[in-house]
Amino acid sequence: xxxxxxxxxxxxxxxxxxxxxxxxxxxxxxxxxxxxxxxxxxxxxxxxxxxxxxxxxxxxxxxxxxxxxxxxxxxxxxxxxxxxxxxxxxxxxxxxxxxxxxxxxxxxxxxxxxxxxxxxxxxxxxxxxxxxxxxxxxxxxxxxxxxxxxxxxx
Length: 154
Ligand SMILES: [Fe+2]
Ligand SMILES: [Fe+2]
What we know:
Blueprint: H1 3-22, H2 27-59, H3 63-87, H4 94-125, H5 128-144
């Protein structure tokens, strides 16, 4: 498995969870799924910054790479802010659903840019071996991250 497939797998997993949440009309279940989404997104964004983005930055000092990474980190911050808002609202209410829609939109947009633009740039900068190593690194980093305010759901 290389970093591209690893990241893609995480993205598909979160997209499926977001669809699942929207298909359900029971706030207790929505809350449980949302906790999972929060955990997955937090771990993913943090580990991605520490491995994939870092490797890209190290592989090139070109301004367009730097700009892309800055933009991607801003996207992550926006996603974190939306999640923080959602933690403090009652799950399933109209305001919550509206913000959740914004979160889904932000994630979908970011994922698309990452998989299209960033992956294309990365494939030119990173060797196949590096791409494989980065997948292992990202998995390892995820195991070491502790997400505040998250208690096990099961
Ligand atoms: Fe990602
Ligand atoms: Fe990302």
